[in-house]
Amino acid sequence: MNKKELREKYKKLRTQISAEELDNSSIDIANQSLQLPIWEKSYYHIFLPIEKQKEINTEYILQILQGKDKNVIIPKSNFENNTLEHILLTDTTKLKINSWGIPEPTEGISIPEDKIEVVFVPLLAFDLQGNRIGYGKGFYDKFLSKCDPETIKIGLSLFPAETQIKEVLPTDIRLDLCVTPRETHRFKI
């Protein structure tokens, strides 16, 4: 399947997930992530879920990060140029849901891409080579291309891997790992 077909397939699959299934899968993904070789790092970037899109509830991973006293960075979207700003999450960070349904910080301390060591990456689908499909705006590919080459890129997926995604572009950034509720796929680590 091409990217457009895969986007449609996985958006439809998400609509069929119950709130309880989504929550249980999110907990399973957080538990799987505890087994990853990433916990000695200091700066972790994590997305906050778009609830209406039934994205993985990253609150459980966020709790792990805060329990381990890690620096947590969350994205703020710029829809004029499809880029992200990276804001340090603190006790005083105020969040607001933007017009796309994304919870974002209203302001805060901006962290440069080269300081971020681990990125939890949202996606709709991924394949056995570590390629991913998002919503198609390129926010994460632009962001990940600016990160240090050693930055660990971890996809979080509700569904198993596709065998192969067609139409992969040179600007598409591959994942190092992808965590599903049942298993972890390792592509580079």
From TrEMBL:
<keyword id="KW-0067">ATP-binding</keyword>
<dbReference type="Pfam" id="PF01812">
    <property type="entry name" value="5-FTHF_cyc-lig"/>
</dbReference>
<dbReference type="GO" id="GO:0046872">
    <property type="term" value="F:metal ion binding"/>
</dbReference>
<dbReference type="InterPro" id="IPR002698">
    <property type="entry name" value="FTHF_cligase"/>
</dbReference>
<dbReference type="GO" id="GO:0035999">
    <property type="term" value="P:tetrahydrofolate interconversion"/>
</dbReference>
<dbReference type="GO" id="GO:0030272">
    <property type="term" value="F:5-formyltetrahydrofolate cyclo-ligase activity"/>
</dbReference>
<dbReference type="GO" id="GO:0009396">
    <property type="term" value="P:folic acid-containing compound biosynthetic process"/>
</dbReference>
<keyword id="KW-0479">Metal-binding</keyword>
<feature type="binding site">
    <location>
        <begin position="3"/>
        <end position="7"/>
    </location>
    <ligand>
        <name>ATP</name>
    </ligand>
</feature>
<keyword id="KW-0547">Nucleotide-binding</keyword>
<comment type="similarity">
    <text>Belongs to the 5-formyltetrahydrofolate cyclo-ligase family.</text>
</comment>
<dbReference type="InterPro" id="IPR024185">
    <property type="entry name" value="FTHF_cligase-like_sf"/>
</dbReference>
<feature type="binding site">
    <location>
        <begin position="132"/>
        <end position="140"/>
    </location>
    <ligand>
        <name>ATP</name>
    </ligand>
</feature>
<dbReference type="GO" id="GO:0005524">
    <property type="term" value="F:ATP binding"/>
</dbReference>
<feature type="binding site">
    <location>
        <position position="55"/>
    </location>
    <ligand>
        <name>substrate</name>
    </ligand>
</feature>
<dbReference type="InterPro" id="IPR037171">
    <property type="entry name" value="NagB/RpiA_transferase-like"/>
</dbReference>
<protein>
    <recommendedName>
        <fullName>5-formyltetrahydrofolate cyclo-ligase</fullName>
        <ecNumber>6.3.3.2</ecNumber>
    </recommendedName>
</protein>
<keyword id="KW-0460">Magnesium</keyword>
<feature type="binding site">
    <location>
        <position position="50"/>
    </location>
    <ligand>
        <name>substrate</name>
    </ligand>
</feature>
<keyword id="KW-0436">Ligase</keyword>
